[in-house]
Design brief:
- The complex is a heterodimer of chains A (560) and B (188).
- Chain A has 560 residues and is of the alpha+beta class.
- Chain A is built from 19 helices and 20 strands.
- Chain A is globular, with a radius of gyration of 23 Å.
- In chain B, strands 2-1-8-7-6-5-4-3 form an eight-stranded mixed sheet.
- The N and C termini of chain B lie far apart (42 Å).
- The chains are: A alpha+beta (560), B alpha/beta (188).
Amino acid sequence: MYQYDQYDQRIIAERVAQFRDQVGRRVSGELTEEEFLPLRLQNGLYMQRHAYMLRVAIPYGLLASKQLRKLAHVAREYDRGYGHFSTRQNIQFNWMDLERVPDVLEELASVEMHAIQTSGNCVRNITTDHFAGVAPDETVDPRVLAEILRQWSTFQPEFAFLPRKFKIAISASKDDRAVVQMHDIGIYVYENDAGETRVRILAGGGLGRTPILGTIIKDDLPWQHMLTYVESAIRVYNRYGRRDNKYKARIKILVKAIGAEKFAQEVEEEWQFSKDGPGTITQDEFDRVAQYFAPPAYEKLADTDASFEKHLLDDKAFAKWVSRNVHGHKVPGYAAVTLSTKPGPVSPPGDATDKQMEAVADLADQFGFGELRVAHEQNLILPDVRKKDLYDLWQAAKAQGLATANIGLLTDIIACPGGDFCSLANAKSIPIALAIQERFDNLDFVHDLGDLSLNISGCINACGHHHVGNIGVLGVDKDGSEWYQVTLGGAQGNNTALGKVIGPSFSAEEMPEVVSRIIDVFVENRIEGERFIETVNRLGIAPFKARVYADKQPREAATA
Amino acid sequence: MAKIIQLQTGKPVIVEDNWTVLRAAEGETLGDEQIAAAVQSQDAVLFPLSVWKANEQLLAGRDAARTGVWLAPEDEPADAVAYYDRVSLVAVDFPVFRDGRGFSSAYLLRQRHGWKGQLRAIGDVLRDQLNFMKRCGFDAFAVRADKNIEDAIKGFSEFTVAYQASVDEPLPLFRRARLEAAGHKVPA
């Protein structure tokens, strides 16, 4: 993975000193809370219900084992012994003391980590495919351009105060695992017929109050122009994006208002001034960054392993885990493995304790090259495991509660921290996730249901990506109490789609039953082998709606 | 007399300043009499770009040495070009520091619209934005009056290296320091 040089290291060291000084000025009263707010946000520090929350950047979800050990240390020494992996591939600590945050940042800087721009109205952490570099279905490793983008966006002086937050995802795989279309700017990297690396730029995607999928504004762009093109797009947005209403300030609203074609034209005109200028990425720089993403020292192995095959036949639980949590790898004899942070009711989705983090760091060293990934689905990934080690790894992960065989299944719920922590939330997310996991605690049944995503957000900001869940759950506030709106038909991947609201919202207590009834309709109508999303697309939402609201009073059903 | 920060050969120094900004009181618009009085005064006055556009003849008679133009966030920087030869100061207003349009305005005035004279940030100008402002091409900073300007000036020395190209540093890091570190010759 990328290693800091003297400049990268100096920039984060200077950032720590700057933030220490800002905190000092806030504590002394020299800075008002209003003035301090955007400064702390640009350093990932939120005021939550109980304490400050610190969001630490995990650039494009890539972590070294020593970094994860440092995060475990932070969780133990500065927080309450756990952290929460977020849908932006970052980690959040919920119980921070403002005056100690500079010390945390200093600890993080010692392992090349920071919290820069993990919040605020600026370019946020760049995300990518969690299998980048090992995925069999990619032609180019997107991490090189992701790192180049990370550096460009760090303290970009013109775009520190955009109308609203700005999220960029970059992906190079045939199957999109980075939900590129729901980003303010999405970038696909691919090879053209001549074998040259090209990028395709999408703009105007986003979830939140007005979910919209991004539109292609530039295709067939040589990678050298990626930075100047993105800069041009953001300049157009910075100048013309709305600033009068927080809910209409994302780039998607501008793109929608003037039309994607007009927006693309504006960007193209703007780009004429910087095209081929000094912002053009050089081959030298690409190569300098790329050397850090060179493949590790893989062994030459046969693609199959006799002991692995034998364990698959002998141990059903292991086979079940392999069927969901083990993924293809471009190198024969290797696999990528997802460690589930969703064990069910015992722990909220995405949470990991300091001990679990240390254990995972050890597993990454023992069964890989000391490197791991955070998936936007909030799970942890060991990217380079030898197939012959899978059985041992499974047993070790099981001992840590990280081997739940549920990746991509109903209980692999994406959930934001919700009303238990977040001051923006209208409703709690975690208890809903736990209640649904409790209802569906029969793993065989969950396996039989097959691929099914259930995503929960505690408010319209949609951190839980509810719009793109096959089943989406959104917490809403009605007259001061917590209600949940359900959508069906959302999807991520190549056929990304936004779910449709099925009707009036439900109380927290009703939610497990609502999901049960949706599942019942699926099970009864499923044509053999059909995935949940296919059944929903074939039937439409009407039969699901009829079942869910069958015994609801008409009056209630009439008021959304 | 008010104080501002000015870059002198790249170094921020605190200097006395006598420019005044013609600006409407909150929630009001500028009256003709106010404008006429400002035009006739012997003071160094920054006039809003919108006033320039509506009163070209009136303002043309003023001595450029004590006449300037300031842009609101929504103003088009290209529109200021017509007045370059009749002003000695261009300013960009930040009504609230969170409104980042002024950074792009400054970038465009410098990079695209050829303003070589003093470019001043006015309005809600605070220590923690000064370095970004400098990078986008500002060389003068009217720090908000209630803030300690001696403290604000520290905002320029917090960072000694930057990744991107901008107005103050036309080459990105990968075309300068890193090239040198790798043993290449950096083009002049």
